[in-house]
From TrEMBL, chain A:
UniProt keyword list: Cell membrane, Membrane, Transmembrane, Transmembrane helix, Transport
SUPFAM superfamilies, sorted: ABC transporter involved in vitamin B12 uptake, BtuC (SSF81345)
Classification lineage: Archaea, Methanobacteriati, Methanobacteriota, Stenosarchaea group, Halobacteria
Major location category of this protein: membrane
Superkingdom of this protein's organism: Archaea
Name of this chain's protein: Cobalamin import system permease protein BtuC
Family note: Belongs to the binding-protein-dependent transport system permease family. FecCD subfamily.
Keyword ATP-binding belongs to the record: no
Entries under Pfam families matching the protein: FecCD
Cellular localization per UniProt: Cell membrane
Source species: Halosegnis rubeus
This protein's record includes keyword Transmembrane helix: yes
UniProtKB/TrEMBL annotation, chain B:
Annotated transmembrane regions: none
Subunit relationships: The complex is composed of two ATP-binding proteins (BtuD), two transmembrane proteins (BtuC) and a solute-binding protein (BtuF).
Function: Required for corrinoid utilization. Probably part of the ABC transporter complex BtuCDF involved in cobalamin (vitamin B12) import. Probably responsible for energy coupling to the transport system.
Name of this chain's protein: Cobalamin import ATP-binding protein BtuD
Length: 361, 261
C-alpha cells in the first residue's frame, strides 16, 4: 500500500498550498489585507450548528431553525470582513472549484484517450456549453423551462457529450479513436452555431464575448459551491476507478484481461468528467489550458498512477486557477482569467514539449 | 481446462475461425501453430473473452466465457499479449500489481494475498532485480517477462500466451519457454517456431485458414506432407540431435497457392 501514504502526504501538502494561495489571494487587491487578518476573517466566518430552536415554523423550514455557533471571535476591521468575504471570496471559490474540476476532468480524459492533447472539452462539452450560454444571452425568451444562463450552458454541455457518445457507439462498444473524431466534428459544428449566434447577437455581443473568454467574477458564492460540490463528489467516484484507468493506459484488450469491465468503465469516466466539466464551464465560461497543463505538470512530479495523479491534479488545478485569477485581477487593467491561463500555460506547455516530457503520457 | 466447441468467428464479414473444436486438459501446455493469418491470435482472443463470436461455445473450467464478468474471467484466465504499449512511466512492480486488479475491492483496495503473489511472480520471472525501474526503460525481452509476471500475479489456472518468444533472442526464448513449461498452470501459446513448439509443448494444434488441420503430439502432427500443404514450402522433418525432439527445416519455397490470406 505504498501509494496510499504517498497519496495522503501529497494531498495534504497540496491542500495546505491551496489554503495558502486562497489566503494570499484574498488579501490582494485595491485594498491590501494582510494574511493574518484574512485568516482571522475566515476563522470568524466558521460556524457550526449548535442546536435547533423550538419554534412553530421549525417543522415547515427546519433549516431556518438551526442555531449556529461561531467558535472564533477575533477583532477584525469590519471593512476587511466585507472585502474578503463579500467581494473576493466568491471569485476565489469559483476559481478553486473550476480549477479543481477542469484539472480532474483533464487528467481522466488524457488517461482514457491515451492522448497527451486530450483536455476536458475533447468530447464537445465546452462547445455545447458555449452554444447553450450564447443562446441564453442572445435569445433569452426562447429558452424553455425558465432556464437561466448557467443551467442553459450546463444542459448544452451534457447534450453535446451525449450526442458525441451516441455517434461513436456501435453495438455497445465505443472505440476512443471514434470518440475523439466524433468530438472534433461535433465541436466544429457547434462552433459554427456559436458563430452564427454571435452574428445575430446585436447589442449583447460584448456580454457574449466576455462569457466566451472565460471569467470568474460573475458567480455568486452559492454557484461556486454547487460547482465545487458536484466536482468533489464526482472526483471521489472517479478515484474509485483510478486503478481501472491505470489498466486502460495499457490498452483496452489488456485492461479487459486483468478484469476491467472496459465499456462500463469508459461510460462512468466519460459521464463523470463531462458533468464535472459542464458544471465548471457553466459558471466560468471556457477557460483553456488548465485541464491540459496541470495534469501534465503533475504527471511529471508524481508519475502516471491515477490513484495519486487524480487527487493531486485536482488540488493543484484549484491552486493554479486561483493564482492565475489573482494575477488577472491585480494588473493595471483587469483581464479575463482565460487570457492569463492561456498566456502562462502555452509557453509552459511548449517548454515541456521541448524537454520531450509530454510527448507521451 | 478449456472446452471449445464449434467455434466460428467473423471479422469484417470474413470468417476467420470456422468450426473449431478443441479441449485442453488441466496442466497441459498446448501450442497453436500455423501460417500467418491462420487464426492463432483470434483463437486466443476468443478464449480470453475479447471477441464476439458468430457461433459455438468456449468454456473455461466448465463455465461459458461469455457468461462470466470480466472480473470473474480474469480470475480464471490471464493473457500475455504479444506487445503492449509502455509509453509511460509505470514501474515494473506497478505493472505486475495490475495483475491483482480482479482481486482488489474497489472501495477498500484490500487484497490480502496480493503482495505475496506479486513478489512470487517477480521472482519466478526473474524480474525482481529491476522491479523498481520504469517499464519504458526495458528491452523487448524484459518487457515480455514483465507481462508474464503480471499474468502469474493473476494467480489463474489458465494462461494464454500470444507469441511469447517472438521478440526474444535464443537465450531468452529458451529461458522463457523453460519457465512456462515448468508451470503447473494450463498454458495455450501461439508459437511461430515449430522447433520450439515441438521441444516444449505436450500437444500442438495446427491451424490453417481458420480451421484445425491436426491436433496431437508434435511428432504425430509435424509430418512433411502436412506441413508442406499448410505452409506452402518444402520441408524436411528430422530429429534434433541435441534435444531429441522433432525439428522442421524449410528447404525451398514451393507454390503459395494454398495461401488465401
Amino acid at each position: 500500500m505504498r501509494h496510499r501514504s504517498r497519496t495522503a502526504s501529497a494531498v495534504s501538502a497540496l491542500s495546505v498550498l491551496l489554503v495558502g494561495v486562497v489566503v494570499v489571494s484574498a488579501g490582494i487587491g485595491p485594498v491590501h489585507v494582510g494574511p493574518i487578518a484574512v485568516a482571522k476573517v475566515f476563522a470568524n466566518a466558521i460556524a457550526v450548528p449548535a442546536g435547533v430552536r423550538m419554534e412553530a415554523t421549525a417543522l415547515a423550514a427546519p433549516w431556518h431553525a438551526v442555531e449556529w455557533y461561531a467558535p472564533f471571535g477575533y477583532d477584525v476591521d469590519p471593512l476587511y470582513s466585507t472585502i474578503v468575504l463579500q467581494v473576493r471570496l466568491p471569485r476565489i471559490a469559483a476559481g478553486a472549484s473550476v480549477g479543481f474540476a477542469l484539472a480532474a476532468a483533464g487528467t481522466v480524459m488524457q488517461g482514457l484517450f491515451r492522448n497527451p492533447m486530450a483536455d476536458p472539452s475533447i468530447i464537445g462539452v465546452s462547445s455545447g456549453a458555449s452554444v447553450g450560454a450564447v443562446a441564453a444571452i442572445v435569445a433569452p425568451v426562447a429558452l424553455p423551462f425558465g432556464l437561466g444562463l448557467r443551467a442553459s450552458a450546463f444542459v448544452g454541455a451534457l447534450v453535446a457529450a451525449v450526442v458525441v457518445y451516441a455517434i461513436a457507439t456501435e453495438g455497445g462498444r465505443t472505440p476512443v479513436a471514434t470518440l475523439l473524431l466524433a468530438g472534433v466534428a461535433v465541436q466544429t459544428f457547434l462552433g459554427s452555431v456559436t458563430s452564427y449566434l454571435i452574428l445575430r447577437s446585436g447589442d449583447s455581443i460584448e456580454e457574449v464575448t466576455y462569457w466566451l473568454m472565460g471569467h470568474l467574477d460573475a458567480s455568486r458564492i452559492e454557484e461556486a459551491l454547487i460547482t465545487g460540490g458536484i466536482s468533489f463528489a464526482l472526483v471521489v467516484v472517479l478515484y474509485l476507478y483510478a486503478e481501472d484507468l491505470n489498466a486502460l493506459l495499457l490498452g483496452e484488450t489488456d485492461a479487459r484481461s486483468v478484469g476491467v469491465e472496459v465499456e462500463w468503465t469508459k461510460r462512468i469516466l466519460l459521464a463523470a468528467s463531462s458533468i464535472i466539466t459542464g458544471a465548471a464551464v457553466a459558471i466560468s465560461g471556457v477557460i483553456g489550458f488548465v485541464g491540459l497543463i496541470v495534469p501534465h505538470a503533475l504527471r511529471l512530479i508524481v508519475g502516471p498512477d491515477h490513484r495519486i495523479l487524480l487527487p493531486t491534479s485536482a488540488l493543484a488545478g484549484a491552486s493554479f486557477l486561483v493564482a492565475a485569477d489573482t494575477l488577472a485581477r491585480s494588473g493595471p487593467a483587469e483581464l479575463p482569467v482565460g487570457i492569463v491561463t492561456a498566456a502562462v500555460g502555452a509557453p509552459f506547455f511548449l517548454y515541456l514539449l521541448r524537454k520531450r516530457e509530454v510527448s507521451e503520457l | 481446462m478449456i472446452d471449445i466447441d464449434g467455434l466460428c468467428v467473423d471479422r469484417s464479414g470474413v470468417r476467420v475461425l470456422a468450426d473449431v473444436s478443441l479441449s485442453v486438459a488441466d496442466g497441459e501446455f498446448v501450442a497453436l501453430v500455423g501460417p500467418n493469418g491462420a487464426g492463432k491470435s483470434t483463437l486466443l482472443g476468443a478464449v480470453g473473452g475479447h471477441l464476439s463470436r458468430a457461433a459455438g461455445s468456449v468454456a473455461v473450467d466448465g463455465d461459458e466465457v461469455g457468461s462470466l464478468s470480466a472480473r470473474a474471467l480474469a480470475r480464471r484466465v490471464a493473457t500475455v499479449p504479444q506487445e503492449t504499449n509502455f509509453g509511460f512511466d509505470f514501474s515494473v512492480r506497478d505493472v505486475v500489481e495490475m495483475g491483482r486488479h480482479p482481486y482488489r475491492s474497489r472501495f477498500s483496495g484490500d487484497d490480502p494475498d496480493g503482495a505475496a503473489a506479486v513478489e512470487r511472480a517477480l521472482d519466478r520471472t526473474r524480474t525482481t532485480q529491476f522491479a523498481d525501474r520504469s517499464v519504458a526503460s526495458l528491452s523487448g525481452g524484459e518487457k515480455q517477462r514483465v507481462l508474464l509476471a503480471r499474468a502469474l500475479a493473476q494467480s489463474v489456472p489458465t494462461l494464454l500466451l500470444d507469441e511469447p518468444t517472438a521478440s526474444l533472442d535464443i537465450n531468452h526464448q529458451v529461458r522463457t519457454l523453460d519457465l512456462v513449461a515448468g508451470l503447473e498452470e494450463t498454458v495455450v501459446a501461439a508459437i511461430h517456431d515449430l522447433d520450439l513448439a515441438a521441444r516444449y509443448c505436450d500437444r500442438v494444434v495446427l491451424l490453417a485458414d481458420g480451421s484445425v488441420q491436426a491436433v496431437g503430439t508434435p511428432r504425430a502432427v509435424f509430418t512433411a506432407d502436412r506441413l508442406e500443404r499448410v505452409f506452402g514450402v518444402d520441408v524436411t522433418v528430422g530429429e534434433n540431435p541435441a534435444t531429441g525432439t522433432v525439428t522442421v527445416t524449410p528447404t525451398a519455397g514451393v507454390s503459395l497457392g494454398s495461401e488465401s490470406d
